[in-house]
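Q: What would this chain look like folded?
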Amino acid sequence: MGSPLTDFLDLIYPNSCIHCSAELSQAEWYYCFRCEAEAGFNQNYSISQNQLTEILHGRIPIRYAHFMLYFYRNTVAQSILHELKYNNNPDIGRYMGRIHARLLRDEANFKPYADTVLLPVPLHPKKLRKRGYNQAEEYAKGLADVFKIDINSTALVRKKYADTLTKRGRLLRWLTLKETYMLERPQEIAGKHCILVDDVFTTGATLERCYQEVKKADIKSISVLTIAFASRI
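A: My prediction, written as C-alpha cells:
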C-alpha cells in the first residue's frame, strides 16, 4: 500500500495508459494490457532471418538484427515513440529496452558475445541539449541492464544537424546523412562486436551511414536492434 499522500495523488492524477488514457492497475506500466495486446509485437524471434535482416542484406553485413514492435499510426507503438521522443520521458526507453532484451533472452535464447558493445545512434549536440537525452541511448540502457554489456556513446558522434528525416525517401536520406556521422574514437570499439541501436527503423539509411563510419575501427562484426520497424520499402 502507498502512503496517504501517494494514494491521494493517484486519485487526483491517476497513472493512465499513454495510448488510450485508461487508468492503469498496479500490474500495468505505461500502457494497459488491452493496448499491449494490440501493440503489434514482433512474434518472429529469429535474430538471423526476419524483415530487418532481409532489408539490410547486401547493405550492412550484419551478424544479426531484430525489432520489437511494428510501427503503425494510431497504435500504442506510435504512442510509445512519441512519449519517448517528445514528452520528456526517457524512462520508457529504458523500459522498452528491458522488455526487448528479456523477449530475446527467453524466446530466442539470445546471449550477446562477451566482447559486445552497444552503440546508440547519436544525436547532434544541439538536439541533445534541447531534448535532454538521447532516446536511442535510453533504450540501450534497458538492453544493457538485462544483457550486462557496455554502452559506448562517445566513439560515434553526430556532426551535422538536420531536421527530422522521417518523411524523406531512402536516397534523399542517404545524401542528407552522407557527412552527418563521424567516428571520433575508433580505439574504443576496435575488435569488438558492435550492436547499432536505434528507436525506429524506416529506410535503414541512418544505420547504413553509421556502419560506414563504425567499420573504420576494424570492428569484429556488426548487428542491429531497434524498438520499432516502420519500413516503407
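The mean pLDDT is 89.
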